[in-house]
TrEMBL record:
TM segment ranges: none
Membrane association type: Single-pass membrane protein
Similarity comment text for this entry: Belongs to the cytochrome P450 family.
Domain of life: Eukaryota
Entry-linked PROSITE patterns: CYTOCHROME_P450
Gene3D superfamilies (UniProt xref): Cytochrome P450
Protein name, per record: trans-cinnamate 4-monooxygenase
UniProt EC number: 1.14.14.91
Length: 487
């Protein structure tokens, strides 16, 4: 790179940072701020804590500074909440005050600066988008309408695994087939269509696009402009994540059954939303529904493989309640308490979105006796709420029995603020109504039909975590042996 050009860029960056500091001082107020590490000029705590603000690192900081702490990331305030009481304040009691979303350079590109539902500010646009998305996606009617498709997709997975000669001996990477299943589960709802195989060219393109989008969204590397706003032009995100539009196919003939895109396009025709809003609704479903549920299925399988006694108990319940060989359906999940406990325990220990989606207060607010300046990012460490040993018995253990014993009244819908895998309140994840039955059907079918084992050379699967801004998934896509059961 031309040294003169580099020097000019660095001088411009320094000037922008200095201007940021000067402007912030002019607008400064006297606040009683939450505790936290001492910030340095310009960079705040950025150089001290680094970019990797994952749930475990934030837990370590909470142990030092308390259940509410402040990190000064460049010119941005980041408040971390780590107790059920404070989580209730943010998500429920002061749900309106903290009901907006913070975004960064990457998400401004992916959402058209908040034209979607997930990352828009709290207000009329969010209410409109939530209403438009609820009817075609997030109701019990949708579950009953499409659960036959989910059961069919799970049956196809079982058939494909049975036909694969490697599955019962050296093992297979089952994630690849489950990823196809999850796309089909959601695309049946959205477009009333499915991909026939992993080799479908459109599926390959879509998977690559979503993979790159997920990588950019989860990474901390491209968000320097979020920390120091006037440095945004120098951020790698703008060039690396050029404005990519999601290509979708036309809806198939659905014999008069209205799929989700029909409802959404009707809203566009009525003038309730525009063409870009339609795109970003589809974008939200791709990002927020498909991969997150897939991560949870992966974690569930890994824990069942590594805990054969849990797998055995689950198989015994399925055989006892349904009968050997009788395949589980969505209505069956409600009469299988141990299966429900396995799903809950998976979501507790391996929470797919451990920090939830960040919240933001548009105006100055109070929280836990402290002042929270306007437009602060609020992170709720939901993983720590569900894994704090002062709140849970031996939380590091994968023990579904806890949800049948001491925590029998705790549900995934947020009735207890120690356990909020889908959030709570106005900005909670509406996808819970789809995720729970899909998890139950998929794990149930696999355990019914196979003995799930680690590959021959291993005693257990490697469950090393890979965390990002909004994710907790398994680091390595593992191989499992699936020995078919004979009924």
């Amino acid at each position: 790179m031309d040294l003169v050009l580099l020097e000019k860029a660095l001088l411009a960056l320094f000037g922008a940072v200095t201007l940021d500091v000067f402007v912030s001082k002019l607008k400064g107020k006297k606040f009683r701020l939450p505790p936290g590490p001492f910030p340095v000029p310009i960079f705040g705590n950025w150089l001290q804590v680094g970019d990797d603000l994952n749930h475990r690192n934030l837990t370590a900081l909470a142990k030092r500074f308390g259940d509410i702490l402040l990190l000064r990331m460049g010119q941005r305030n980041l408040v971390v909440v780590s107790s059920p009481e404070l989580a209730r304040e943010v998500l429920h009691t002061q749900g309106v005050e903290f009901g907006s979303r913070t975004r960064n350079v990457v998400f401004d590109i992916f959402t058209g600066k908040g034209q979607d539902m997930v990352f828009t500010v709290y207000g009329e646009h969010w209410r409109k988008m939530r209403r438009i998305m609820t009817v075609p996606f997030f109701t019990n009617k949708v579950v009953q309408q499409y659960r036959f498709g989910w059961e069919d997709e799970a049956a196809r997975v079982v058939d494909d695994v049975r036909r694969n000669p490697k599955a019962a001996t050296e093992g297979i990477v089952i994630r690849r087939r489950l990823q196809l299943m999850m796309y089909n589960n959601l695309y049946r709802i959205m477009f009333d269509r499915r991909f026939e195989s992993e080799e479908d060219p459109l599926f390959i393109k879509l998977r690559q696009l979503n993979g790159e989008r997920s990588r950019l969204a989860q990474s901390f590397e491209y968000n320097y402009g979020d920390f120091i706003p006037t440095s945004a032009p120098f951020s790698g995100a703008t060039s690396r994540s050029a404005k990519r539009k999601l290509s979708t196919t036309k809806p198939m003939d659905n014999n008069g059954l209205r799929c989700a895109i029909d409802h959404i396009l009707d809203a566009e025709k009525k003038g309730e939303i525009n063409e870009d809003n339609v795109l970003y609704i589809v974008e939200n479903i791709n990002v927020a529904a498909i991969e997150t549920t897939l991560w949870s299925i992966e974690w569930g399988i890994a824990e069942l493989v590594n805990h054969p006694e849990v797998q055995r108990k689950l198989r015994e319940e399925l055989d006892r309640v349904l009968g050997p060989g009788v395949q589980i359906t969505e209505p069956d999940t409600h009469k299988l308490p141990y299966l429900q406990a396995v799903v809950k325990e998976t979501l507790r220990l391996r929470m797919a979105i451990p920090l939830l989606v960040p919240h933001m207060n548009l105006h100055d607010a109070k929280l836990g006796g402290y002042d929270i300046p306007a437009e602060s990012t609020i992170l709720v460490n939901a993983w720590w709420l569900a894994n704090n040993p002062t709140q849970w018995k031996n939380p590091e253990e994968f023990r579904p029995e806890r949800f049948l014993e001491e925590e029998a009244k705790v549900e995934a819908n947020g009735n207890d603020f120690r356990y909020i895998p889908f959030g709570v309140g106005r900005r909670s994840c509406p996808g819970i109504i789809l995720a729970l039955p899909i998890l139950g059907i998929t794990l149930g079918r696999l355990v019914q039909n196979f003995e799930l084992l680690p590959p021959p050379s291993m005693d257990k699967l490697d469950t090393t975590e890979k965390g990002g801004q909004f994710s907790l998934h398994i680091l390595k896509h593992y191989t499992i042996v699936a020995k078919p059961r004979v009924f």
